[in-house]
Amino acid sequence: MPQPILLHHLDDYKAGGLEFAEIATRLYQYLNNPNQVMLHETSVPPLDTMALGFVTGQLALAPFDGRMVIYGNCAPRRSSDKARKNNRDHGLKYVKLKNGVEILNVWSEYAYGFVRDEVVEYREVNCPAEGSQFRSRDFFPRIVAEVINGNYENIGKELDPQSIPELPHNQVCWTDGFGNIKTTMRMSDLKKMDLQPGQQVLVILNGVSMLGVISVGGFQVDRGVLAVNAGSSGYDDPFIELFLRVHKMSEKPAAERFGHPVGGTEFEIKKI
Hints:
- The chain has helices at 18-30, 49-60, 135-138, 140-149, 187-192, 254-257; strands at residues 5-11, 37-43, 67-73, 92-97, 102-106, 119-125, 155-158, 172-175, 181-186, 200-205, 208-215, 226-230, 239-244, 267-271.
- It is α/β, with parallel strands linked by helices.
- It has a seven-stranded mixed β-sheet, with helices on both faces. Strands 8-9-13-12-11-10-14 form a seven-stranded mixed β-sheet.
- Strand 12 (226-230) and strand 13 form a beta hairpin.
- Helix 1 (18-30) crosses helix 4 (140-149).
- It is elongated.
């Protein structure tokens, strides 16, 4: 039996919504062996390209022995405020990583930022970028399915991976279901700032200032204390997380205290 292929579909539609169902239907329509493909869907916040990039990186760099393909769509169409002729916007780009994972994301400044250093192949994709308001259903699934089928005829000209923008290390990238805020800052950044576990710091985010403590883990602080700690994401150099230890969600976790910052919101950590 051929080994199953894991297809991660990331989109900024409502989890479990009609859009996901329609796109899944199109994907299976174009796949040569749909029974061989395990489809997993993940919803990211609407119009949040930073979140899309973060989830792409976290999944793409996970240990996995089989074949993995990621299809990501988050296209806020905000590069201009002008009307868009025929619904035109950025199209897909193709990336292959050192570990063999293939990614087809709608291009944005953060779509490939979290995997930039792992890219071995970066290419244009020959696919319509206009002509439908629902491109992620009408055009993109066919290209994704072709790649899974082993057909690369629409994978176009080679691009320079160095042209992928580098990630800033002072922004919010994801808020989990418990209200913990994951950031683009790395554990190595705290070390460069000479911050050690137990030190107090001032965290400034979204117009809110709050005292925090550098910590190895979120549960190594007292209840009600903001931990600035290496989170569960980022692998060898974990991303820093703002983790306010609460025992009930009514106690208002970090995301609520900081006004629910969206992906890309800048923050600052100051020594005290």
